[in-house]
Amino acid sequence: MTDLDNAHAAMEAAPEDDAARLRFYERLADSEIYLLLGGEADGDQITPALFDVEDGQYALIFDREERLSDFVGRIAPYAALPGRALVQMLAGQGVGLGLNLDVAPSAMLIPADAVDWLAQTLSHAPAETEARLTAIAAPRHLPQSVITGLDRKLAIAAGLARLAYLAEVTYDSGAKGHILAFVDTVDGAEKALASAAGEALTFSGIAAGMMDVLFLRASDPMAARLAKVGLRFDLPEPPVAASGPAAPGMDPTKPPKLR
């Protein structure tokens, strides 16, 4: 059973549970997905194999390479890419997703409107604020689902920062909230990390605006204060890059394009 199999089973077992449905779509966004192609990739240009069903066209995707092979039964071209890149690429195209059809317990048809919804949800950018902090304390009022979601999101943000602290704060306006402070962030990774924090809230079913994001250096006095009371998350080291050219979709900085 894969993560997507488990998330799909939980969603099917509780069809009225919005949290279970959100967790399934989060797993889809965070998973590496194998997209069946209609022909060999031409550089970064790919053409998904599309199949007509009653309510529209569907691209076929799998969460394991061997599942794609089992379905096709022959050597076939495919692109491996993050689920979030896939839905953002297909958004607005009127194309749904056929997930693991005939080869796994998570087999299902995801209609085009659900693809569009997920792409839109993932595209939400956090707003910038200039509020000042007047007090910092240990986090005590966030649901465990948010803590678990953050831990899961930061586990796949390898190499983007050294660590992060979660803390409860009071602002100069008197308002209370939470912050997630990243320490020693790689230049240019701020947007991706802020989005990851926002997604942890969204897919936990928590309203946006409950947590702000800071970026600090280890030498900042604020980092030392947070180290005393904050909940610490250590981000993994970046994976060692493989030699040779990458397959289409494998480089997150160069997503494939439809043709």
TL;DR of this structure?
The chain has helices at 3-13, 18-30, 65-72, 83-90, 112-122, 144-155, 190-202, 221-229, and strands at 32-36, 45-46, 50-53, 56-62, 78-82, 95-99, 108-110, 133-137, 163-171, 176-183, 211-216, 231-234, 257-258. The protein is α+β, with helices and mostly antiparallel strands and 259 residues long. The protein folds into 2 domains: 3-123, Uncharacterised protein PF11572, DUF3234 (Trna Endonuclease, Chain: A, domain 1); 133-234, Macrophage Migration Inhibitory Factor (2-Layer Sandwich).
Task: Describe the structure in your own words.
This is SseB protein N-terminal domain-containing protein. This protein is of the alpha+beta class and about 260 residues long. The protein has two domains: about 5-125, Uncharacterised protein PF11572, DUF3234 (Trna Endonuclease, Chain: A, domain 1, 3-Layer(aba) Sandwich), CATH 3.40.1350; about 135-235, Macrophage Migration Inhibitory Factor, CATH 3.30.429. Helix content is about 35%, strand content about 25%. It has helices at about 5-15, 20-30, 65-70, 85-90, 110-120, 145-155, 190-200, 220-230; strands at about 30-35, 45, 50-55, 55-60, 80, 95-100, 110, 135, 165-170, 175-185, 210-215, 230-235, 255-259. The strands form three sheets. Strands 1, 3, 4, 5, 6 and 7 form a six-stranded mixed β-sheet that branches. A hairpin with an 8-residue loop joins β6 (about 95-100) and β7. The chain is elongated and about 60 Å long.
